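User: My instructor asked us to take a sequence, write out its structure as tokens, and then describe one feature of it. I'm not sure where to start. Here is the sequence I was given:
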Amino acid sequence: MKITQIETIRVGEFPDLIWVQVHTDGCITGLGETWYAASGVQALVHDHFGPLLIERDPSDVEAHWTEMFRLSDHAGYGGAELRAISALDMALWDIKGQAAKMPVYEMLGGPVRQKVKVYNTCGVYGDIQDGWNIYRDAGRVAKELLDEGIGAMKMSPTDFIARESGGQLLDPVDLDWALGPLRSVRDAVGLDMQIATDAHAKWNLPNAIRIAQAMEPFEIMWHEELLSPFNEEAHLRLQRSTRTPICVAERLMSRYQFRRFIENGAARVVMPDLVWNGGISETFKIAVLASAHQVPLAPHDCTGPVNMFACAQICVAAPNVMVMESNRAMHRGWYGRFVRPNSVIKDGYLLAPEGPGIGTRLRPEVRDRSDAVVAVSDQARESWLTSRRRYTYPPPDIQEQIEAKRRARRGGRE
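Assistant: Let's start with the prediction itself. The structure tokens for your sequence are:
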């Protein structure tokens, strides 16, 4: 089987979201997804990585990942390059699973569970206003979630109070206001609901320490991104200042950045974003790395519907998965309009996908939407990046020089 065509699809309704479909001559199409700066990802898929993959065997997933990464890591190992690799890697795993007629998790070693607990990130879409309602009555939101079997929720109560000073100044009155939703949950349901916080990397270290210590009486499940992940030692100082676990999260790219935070003890929970940090291949490696240090994994979502399926494969196959992020505003609000089937969350659990490969398909009508932007590559053409492969195999005269030196070193022995 060979890759014949690579297609990207974007829609105006969600301009940062991009889907990648990898087509083969075996009538199997793989689906991938990533989010943020979609036009940059589109350019990389079609100008660099697409020509590298077309006419190749899609089943060589690790070889393709390694070559794409090596052709881009000279500029660093984050950014649009890694997002493009993530989407393509997801699609290649999807093809591999479909060809084998089994879910991806079977190819990662088989299931260690058939479902994983979810927590609800309090988002906003349509009629679901969790992200605003936590400031109106967080206790009521907690009760609604518990009625659905969801026993953990994540909120961002310090985001608003960071805006005026850029996180450099923390007013005691503002901090007390940010504690309000936590009080509301504890007053309404006690310890029945676990609470995680996400600060979106807005604070400096002294203020992050103050926030973490002020929230300790509310028994927080974790603090996520109180700091930007620029300095693993600063994160370690934050972790040492509080008994609440620090979650080191989606802004870290690849196993190489996660390694520093895991090894120095700064990360007590690891939250990779599969569509940003290298896809299924890299996220599973991060899970293994974390497990070697007895650190749990909690995959990140809040991007798109395909990511939920890809993360579910990791959650089913990796023993150290703690919990999976979900966002009921997005899951119920729009995911199902773009994929079929939608992921299944029941009684507080994300269920293992049943279909082969990733387990879902992009709805055909998405491609035909009036706001859709579709781009296609079908040629294995050369570019500056892909042409570098030629230097791996020197011309015959140079190759003969190399072989002559090898023969001389072996003393003429063949």
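For the description part of your assignment, you could build on this observation: The domain at 3-101+364-389 is CATH 3.30.390.10 (Enolase-like; domain 1). Try explaining in your own words what that tells you about the chain.
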